[in-house]
Design goal:
There is one protein chain. It is built from 36 helices and six strands. It is mainly α. The strands form three sheets. The chain has a two-stranded antiparallel ribbon. Strands 3-4 form a two-stranded antiparallel sheet. The protein has a two-stranded antiparallel ribbon with strand order 5-6.
Length: 834
Amino acid sequence: MRWMCSALLAASFACAAPVDFTRDIQPIFAKRCVACHGAAQQMKDLRLDGRDSALKVIVPGNSTGSKLIARVSSDKKGFSMPPVGAPLTPAEIAVLRTWIDEGAKWPAAAKPTVAATLWSLKPVQRPQVPGVRQRTWARNPIDNFVLARLESENIQPSPEANRTTLLRRVSLDLTGLPPTPAEIAAFIADNRPDAYERVVDSLIASPHYGEKWARQWLDLAHYADSDGYEKDRGRPWAWRYRQWVIDALNRDMPFDEFTIDQLAGDLLPSPTVDQRIATGFLRNTLTNREAGVDRAEARFEQIVNRTNTVSTTWLGLTVGCAQCHNHKFDPISHKDYYSMLAFFENAEERTIDAPLPGEAGPYLQALPEYRHKREQIIAEYKIRELEERWEARLKEAFEHQGKDLEWDFAVTEFRAGYDGERDVLTGDRTRRSAREQGRLIDFFLGSVNPDFAKNKPVADSLKAAREKLIALAAALPQYSQAPVVEVDPTIPPTRMHLGGDYKNTGDLVEPNTLAILPALPAPHKDRLSLARWIVAPSQPLTARVAVNRMWQEFFGIGLVRTSEDFGTQGEAPSHPELLDWLASEFVERGWSMKQMHRLIVASATYRQSSHARKELDARDPENRLIARQTRLRLPAELVRDAALSASGLLNPEIGGRSVRPAQPAGVAELGYGNSVKWVESKGMDRYRRGLYIHYQRTTPYPLLSNFDAPESNVTCSRRRRSDTPLQSLNLLNDPVFFEAAQALAIRVWNEASGEVGDKLDYAFELCTGRGPSSRERDRLLRYLTAETAAFHSDEKSAAAMLPVEAGAPTPEQRAAWVAVSRVLLNLDEFITRE
C-alpha cells in the first residue's frame, strides 16, 4: 500500500505540473543512476552524464520502450540499475516515466549531471566557523568544526593526551623520529603556557621534517631506484630527485611552486638546475629494457603512467579509467583522457649535471688527468675505430631490418638499453657532444656485437679496455647528475588510442584539461600552462586533495577516506565544511605546507587521547567523528628508524645516495638472471634512515614489503596496514633489528647508572618514551633473570648473542640484555604512534 501511495503521489504531481529536468530529473541521475555506469559489461552503452549519450537510450515519448526504465524497474542481478546500493524508489521511477513520456526534455545547455552536483567539483567556498557550546575546548577553528559535529551527536571529545604521549606523537608525525629521554624530560619540566607550541616549531624547523614528509610525496611519485620489469636495471641518479623533495619541503616551498616546478620546471623562463631537477617527478615511470618490446609501445605506457600519476596526485580523480573508453562512473570522456595525455607527449627523458655543494671543486681538479688517462686507454685499444664500425652496422641493420638476424637482435638490445637511441640511429654523428660520444662508447664496450664476438682477440681487448675504464671512473670524485624531462619538438602531435591500444590510433587531439573542470586559459597549452591551471584559484580539486592527505597523515584516515578518488565512486567527506575551510586556508596562507601542519597539530582535536572508548565502538568504530586520536602503526621506514634511534645506531645524515643495509640472504638472488647485486653499504651508511634504502622494484627490501610499503609501479595515495606473523619475525630475526638489539643492550649498560632496575627503566624509556609500570618492570626483571640463567649453561648461545666484550661484564649477562632488548623492540607500543 505504501509503495502504491508513493507512486500515485508522484504520478499525480507529474500530471499537475510538467516535470522539470533541473529540479526533478537531474538530482535522480546524480544521486542514483549515474552510479550504475558500466558496472557490468552489458551496461556499457547506458550513460546518463550527458544529454547526447542519454537520449540515445531513453527513447523520448515512450517510457515503455526505454532501456532506462527497463533497468531501474528490474530486480535482475547484473541487469538492474543501480547494481549496488539502494534501488530507485517507486516515486523516482514514476517521475522518470512521466518525464520520458513528456518527451524527455533535456536543455541543450544543461551541464553534465555529475559535474553539476558532485561535491568535489564545486568551487571551494570558505564556510563560516561554527559556534560550539564548549568554547573553552577549541584551540583553533579546526576544533569548532569537529566539536560542532560531536555536539550534534551528543558525544564528548576525549581529554588531552599526557605530555609524554603528546611529545612522542608529534615528534613521530613531524619528523618521523621519536624524542630522546632528554627531550621528554625537558618538555615535561617546561611549565610555560606555550611549551607545546615551542616544541612544534622546533620540530617543523628540523631538517628531519623534510625527510618525514618526503616519504608521503615519494609514494605519490612512485619513486624507485630501478627501472622495473624483468631486467630492473638500477638508476644511479634517481636519488637526486628525492634530495630535491627533501630540500623543498624543509624550506617550505609553497605548494603551488612545488607543483609547477615538478610538472614544468624546464619550461620556466631561464630555469635553474633545481627547477629542472624537480621534473624528476615525471621520471619515476617504469622503463622496459626488454629487447623484444616495441619501443613505441613502451614509451606510450610511460606517458599513460605520467598522465594517471599526475591526475591522482593533484586532482584526486581516477582519470586513468578513461584510457580505453569513456569513464564509466565519472564524467570524463575518452577524448578528455588523451587531451590530458597530450601535455606529456613531447616530454623527452634527459640526464643533466646536478652537483651537490662541494662536489664541483674536487671533480674539476681531477677531471683533466681523468680525461687524459681515458684517452690513452681509448687510443691503446683503438676503441674509436671499433665503435664507429659498430655504430655503422647498427644503423645499417636498423634501416634494413630482416637481413641479418644477429644484428637485428643487436639493434633491439641497443634500443632497449640506451637512452636516446633514436638520436644515434637516425641522427648526425658529427653533431654529437663529447659527453654523448663518451656515453655511447661506454655502452658500446658492454654491448652485443655479433662481429666482434666471433673474433676472440678483439672481444678480449674490448673487455680489458672496459675494465680499465670502469676502474678509472670509479676513482673520479663524484659529480652528481639528475634525471629530468625536457621538450622534444620533433615528437609528432597526440592522437587518441582507441580502446587504449597504442597501435589503434584515432583523431588528433590538442592538449587540454578535463571538460568538467574550469577551462584552461588560452593561448598556451603546454605542461607549464597545465601546472599553473592545476594550482589556479578556480580549480576546485587541488587544495582539497592536498589538505585531505595532510589530515590522513595526522589521523590515519582522510576527511575523504578515498584520498585517491574524489569522484562518484569515492567516499564523501565526513566533515565537508572542515575540508573546504582547510582548503581555503591553505590557499590564503600562501600554500604553506608547514603552516598547515602547524595548524593541525596545534588543534585540540589532534591533541586528544587515543584511548578507545567502548561507548563509541558501535556508533563510530572507525573514529570518523574524531572523538579521539587514532593509534597508528608506524610506516615501514619509521619502524626501522625507531629501532636505530633507540639503539643509538641511527646515522642522522640528511640526503644523498641510496644505501643498501644488511638484508636476509637470498633476496637479491630473486632478481632476473641474478642481475640484482646487493652490495651492503659499509660504515655508518648501514644505519641511514629507511627513506634512503635502495628500492629495487623486482626485489624490494623485505622490511619495506613486510610492513606494507607500496609497490612503486603506480602512484600510492594511502598505504594499507596489515598485521602479519612475518612482521613479528622481521622484528626478531632481521639482521638490522638483531644488530639494533645488540647495540641497545650495550647502550643501556654503558649509559644507565644504578642497579638493574634502573637500567631496565632506561631501556624501556628509550623504546617507548615512558618508564615501565611496576608490573612491566617485574616481568622484564623475571625474564632477564631467566635468560641469564639459561645463557650461563649455554656458553655457545651466549657468545652468539653478543660476541664482543662490551656492555655487561659476563657473556651470559650480555646475552640476556640482548634478549631483553629484542623484547622491547618487538612491543606493539614501540612500533605504534599513540
